[in-house]
Amino acid sequence: MKLGKAPIVFRKELLDQLRDHRTLISMIVIPILLFPVLVIGTGYLLSKWKERTEREKIPIMLLGAEHAPALRAAGLHRLTISLDTLRPDRFRALTGRDNLAAVLEGIRAAADAGFTGTKLDSVLLRGSNDDELFDLLEFSRHAGIEVRFLEYMDVAGATRWTLDQVFTRAEILAALTQRYGRVEPLAENGSAPAQRFCLPDGTTFGIIASTTTPFCRTCDRSRLTSDGLWFLCLYATRGLDLRRPLRKGASPEEIRHLIQQAWQQRDARGAELRKQVPDRCAFIPLEGLRRDPHLEMHTRGG
């Protein structure tokens, strides 16, 4: 089973169905759609978001930014780009692809297209790329973007995950303090997953410490797959099917009620519960992923 052949289709249906509920789309649907990897019809979908929501700024996470001008023209305001290494051989080993140069060019293209506030997400793995901590920080500084270092999570798809591979928040801060001097936390209000810090020279960066310091109680992220399953947590093994009622003729009010009820009853504490597991290992074995591709993190957006 493959997902995402036409990721725009269901999301367009949902936006069309909820077109009269601008606040609901802004508060509920947009967080659902915050991190999809969109390939087909991206510009069209973004333009519809702009028309039907009350948000002035729409962020999105992409695996590359080569379509930056078109995305900017469609109304996108901010990009988050995933990049775990600056070394071609390591990039090839981590991703199975030989296109580091294309990602770097995409970052430059994003700046040329007028994007500001771009984030660079980098997952650090002990013994794999943790030796690039300083390089990634310096790269982001010179590129005029902010890096966010992510602890390695045992989400579905990380079938080789082990706890000793996790390069922790505490270790990141200790290394940066030793290299650059005192690191100050930035006091901010909001639900962003990253805690932000500042170096003595004013350079800012973030850390998403989901593994050692879960933030489930303040998390407001959820994800909608291209075939209509709404997952309220990255660790969720089941999603709410929104496509079925929609295609059976449910009214906008009925869809609205389904979404609101599910969100109000949400009690997702996946990362907190995983932290309590003794002898913690990979969350979902490879056989489970083969049976249900919805469990793969990349099918729901990372």
SSE topology:
Blueprint: H1 8-17, H2 22-32, H3 42-52, E1 59-62, H4 68-73, E2 78-82, H5 88-95, H6 100-112, E3 119-124, H7 133-143, E4 146-151, H8 169-180, E5 184-185, E6 195-198, E7 204-208, E8 223-224, E9 229-231, E10 240-241, H9 243-247, H10 252-264, H11 270-275, H12 286-291, H13 297-300
Parallel strand pairs: 1-2, 2-3, 3-4, 4-7
Antiparallel strand pairs: 5-6, 6-7, 8-9, 9-10
Task: Give an overview in words.
With 302 residues, this protein is of the alpha/beta class. It has a domain at 80-219: Aldolase class I (TIM Barrel). 38% of the residues lie in helices and 13% in strands. It is built from 13 helices and 10 strands. The chain has helices at residues 8-17, 22-32, 42-52, 68-73, 88-95, 100-112, 133-143, 169-180, 243-247, 252-264, 270-275, 286-291, 297-300; strands at 59-62, 78-82, 119-124, 146-151, 184-185, 195-198, 204-208, 223-224, 229-231, 240-241. The strands form 2 sheets. It has a 7-stranded mixed β-sheet with strand order 1-2-3-4-7-6-5, covered by helices on one side. The chain has a 3-stranded antiparallel β-sheet with strand order 8-9-10. Strand 3 (119-124), helix 7 (133-143) and strand 4 form a beta-alpha-beta unit. Helix 1 (8-17) packs parallel to helix 3 (42-52). The longest helix has 13 residues, at 100-112. The chain is globular, with a radius of gyration of 19 Å. Mean pLDDT is 80; it is low at 1-9 and 21-41.
